[in-house]
Amino acid sequence: METTRENVDIIAFGAHPDDVEIGAGGLLAKEAALGYRVGIADLTRGEMGTRGTPDVRLEEARKAAEILGAIWRINLEMPDGNITADHENVMKVARVIRTYRPKVIIAPYWDDRHPDHVNTSRLVTEAHFKAGLRKLEPELEAYRPNIILYYFLNRMEGFSFIVDISENYPRKQEAVNAHYSQFGDAGLKPLAVLGVKAPLQFIESRDRFQGSQIGAAYGEAFLVRTPVPVEDPLEVWGR
Ligand SMILES: [Zn+2]
């Protein structure tokens, strides 16, 4: 992975080091394969997780990012289990947005059983707005991405669109599996990841379900707060 400060097309934000893989790993792999520049920013090191030390999880996250084809992955080192959408944290995320100037950012859906996911959603949403305010910390040039795509972790409702990730699915699975401390022997011991005993099967069946909604083998659903522009409905539905 490069560690340059070059602009990226898309940044995926997650609360914990495996969140973006679970909710949007297929999309990230797809965009990277299409030649877009993908960055990943984790808000915490996942140190409150029952399994895996912060160092182990950092290494797993680095590997997973490489598998997905991201050009960098950074960690904002906020406290796991206690992410707050206060001004300091909002500005931390806003500075990342201003530095790398992505066209699209990705954040967890705002309703979830894990408070960190809820707060990350709020934090990134606020940072998206504040990054565009010229008089706020003017030493870093203001910039606001075009849109936030919300991905789903524990709860899903109200899809805006579903992306066909069938071809990229092996990469997604490999990236999720790179978080071995979280999923390694998930088949042997019950885990609390996503609140289910078999998280990998849960992720796969959900991705299959979302794919089935658009006639694809695997899909990832996203929610946006503005209408989705369609150039030509016949191009999408006329075939
Ligand atoms: Zn999480």
Description:
The structure is a single chain. The chain has 239 residues and is α/β, with parallel strands linked by helices. The chain has a single domain, classed as LmbE-like (Rossmann fold), CATH 3.40.50.10320. 38% of the residues lie in helices and 14% in strands. The chain has 8 helices and 7 strands; from the N terminus they run βαβαβαβαββαααβα. α2 runs antiparallel to α5. The longest helix has 16 residues. The relative contact order is 0.18. About 3% of the residues have low confidence. Zinc ion binds next to loops.
Concise summary:
The chain is of the alpha/beta class and 239 residues long. Helices cover 38% and strands 14% of the residues.
Number of strands: 7
CATH fold name, please? Rossmann fold
How far is the first residue's CA from the last residue's CA? Answer: 40 Å
Shape: globular
Quaternary state reads single chain
Sheet with the most strands: spatial strand order: 3-2-1-4-5-7-6
Secondary-structure map:
Blueprint: E1 10-14, H1 19-33, E2 38-42, H2 54-68, E3 72-75, H3 87-100, E4 104-108, H4 115-130, E5 147-151, E6 161-164, H5 169-177, H6 180-183, H7 199-212, E7 219-223, H8 233-237
Parallel strand pairs: 1-2, 1-4, 2-3, 4-5
Antiparallel strand pairs: 5-7, 6-7
Helix pairs in contact: 1-5, 2-5, 3-4
The protein binds zinc ion (ZN).
Residues 15-16, 19, 114, 117 line the site of zinc ion (ZN).
